[in-house]
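Margin note from the TA: students keep mixing up input and output lines. Inputs are the sequences; the output is the structure of the whole complex. Example:
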Amino acid sequence: MNMIVCCKQVLDPEAAPATFKLDAANNRMVQPPEVKPVINPYDEQAVEAALRIKDTDKAAHKVTVITLGNNLIRDVVKKPLSMGADELILLEDAAFEGGDGFAVASALAAAIKKVGQFDLIFCGRQESEWDDGQVGSGIAEILGVPSVTVAKKVEVAGGQVKVERVTADGFQKLEASMPCLITVSNELGEARYATLKGIMAASKKQPIVWKPADIGLDKVGAAARKTKVVKLFQPVKEGKCEIISDDDLKVAAGKLADKLREYKVI
Amino acid sequence: MADNKGILVVGEIAEGKLAPITAEALGAGRRLADELKEELSCILIGDKVGDAAKAAVAAGADKVYTTEDAALKDYENDAYMQVAEKAAKDLAPRIILLGQTSMGRDLAPRLAFRLGVSAVMDCLELAIDGATKQLLCTRPVYGGNAKATFSSEALPQIATVRQKAMSPLAPDAGRQGQIAAFPVAIDAGKVRAKVLETVKEEVAGVKLEDAGAVVAGGRGMGGPEPFTKELAELAKILKGAVGASRPPCDNKWVPDTIQIGLTGKIIAPELYIAVALSGSSQHMSGCSGSKCIVAINKDPEANIFKEARVGVVGDWKVILPAFTQRIKELTQ
Ligand SMILES: Cc1cc2nc3c(=O)[nH]c(=O)nc-3n(C[C@@H](O)[C@H](O)[C@H](O)COP(=O)(O)OP(=O)(O)OC[C@H]3O[C@@H](n4cnc5c(N)ncnc54)[C@H](O)[C@@H]3O)c2cc1C
Ligand SMILES: Cc1cc2nc3c(=O)[nH]c(=O)nc-3n(C[C@H](O)[C@H](O)[C@H](O)COP(=O)(O)OP(=O)(O)OC[C@H]3O[C@@H](n4cnc5c(N)ncnc54)[C@H](O)[C@@H]3O)c2cc1C
């Protein structure tokens, strides 16, 4: 089986909120150089979902990762290879910048078409920068394949894919025909660590790089988007927390309760 | 699609009633429709719509369309898309609103791409640009560290609204509105993903979404026991519910359904007591609407102290028993 996983390089979402600074001129947020970008955490779990299927028969299944961006950091984008993915394709060009979900999904779908063979496509449920969660469904719609979003379990049996989809109060069990696109949620469980052997193999492997012309698109990135950002801003927080203290922590705890009575919330 | 007019809310039915999120979307839609001087309609999809249609009128809709079919009992995108696509084409609204729910976050992007537009997901505010009549959608980005306002020229403009971000109208049973069937013959052959089973994992007691007080624990709770002992005890005294940040869910200390945040439940209780959680922007996205946030954390630098109104710095193991004891005295 051929599986494709879309992985995005993002600012580190787990870094302290104070590290995010507004770059108003470019309508985006930036982090200081000491905070390293990462693979979007859900996308690592999407790789994990594909690898769990690959584990059932290593020789029969192939996992290809596609990452779109510009000036991608090799050590970051190669992580899926060191986890056990077979191939890495980078859609890397300045022209890919400034795209919205529509532009990104269109480019990824074109790249997947060029890869040609696919039974399952995995995405993260959302990426941690714009948190939009529409690229996966968009790719499925462009390619005309079914999609199941926010998955916590994915298994293949009898030519069908069985998916558990997380809902607000539980989950749904679904069965879909293949090819199918699945977006993965954190409930799937932790992604595996890269092994030393994997890191060695990944360091030797050269990613394939495709430009817009390679995927047959003349409009990508900012030129292909449907939405525009009117304004990006960082809301100001008042941040006036009253800290209750006392030499005896238990006394402070009691005073905290008294405070809530004073506020009339208990 | 230059003739697109009006606003269409794709509604949801929860346990036979109009879902609260749909009333919220209708409240937002009503304001926008009045500003545009255009109509607000609502489509309700399911195996049985029942009284939800009347409730949608009472919540602000001028017209309610109902599509009923046994094949629409559970949400599945290939089936629901057949209805949504037909509604978007036949009714040709300027704006389509959905809730940011299990259904909305799945249906909105798929519908947008089918219509050749892009959706704006998880909006906190919606407004109309007076000059262009375009919808301006403001939503959190970078995990809640920033906000962005989006617009688009292509019609229809599709947006999902975050739960509890928009106010519903006070239900008015005397409000006039039309209710009409919107029949769609569902082609079962086009439904490629089949729902085999729907599993509910409800937790006993007060529902998190409805609770006036929520006691939430984070990674610093250290394991499952404190959630069923210390936190549950405090929640019980406050007649509230227990919640969690993501790590306790990921670690299987608590069910996934009590996760609060950007990708969990969105709540806005009167009182939110955050214990041993750092207050990440993703977590705060789910509870920053709370009236009073209380922080208990051993790290004075933790972000939660930037979000809370009041707090104590220290080990929860020492603070919580004394705090709970005093709350008990005060509330008895
Ligand atoms: C008007 C506008 C302008 C923008 N300008 C810029 C800009 O100048 N620079 C910039 O960096 N960003 C910019 N963005 C952000 C934009 O490029 C997002 O990355 C894009 O919209 C996809 O994010 P999303 O939240 O829609 O993805 P989601 O729909 O949340 O992503 C879901 C999944 O799709 C896959 N995926 C998404 N993006 C990629 C990718 N790049 N490669 C591989 N897989 C992917 C992943 O599996 C991911 O988990 C802009 C966005 C908008 C709306
Ligand atoms: C796209 C995306 C979506 C996400 N969605 C969500 C979401 O919906 N909800 C969510 O919660 N997270 C979400 N996350 C994860 C989020 O980024 C944080 O990792 C998470 O919220 C951290 O949880 P925490 O505060 O419990 O853990 P930590 O950040 O590890 O904080 C633990 C805290 O406990 C304190 N502590 C430890 N021991 C004690 C003690 N004995 N007494 C008192 N205090 C103590 C520590 O000082 C620390 O502040 C998301 C992440 C991404 C990238």
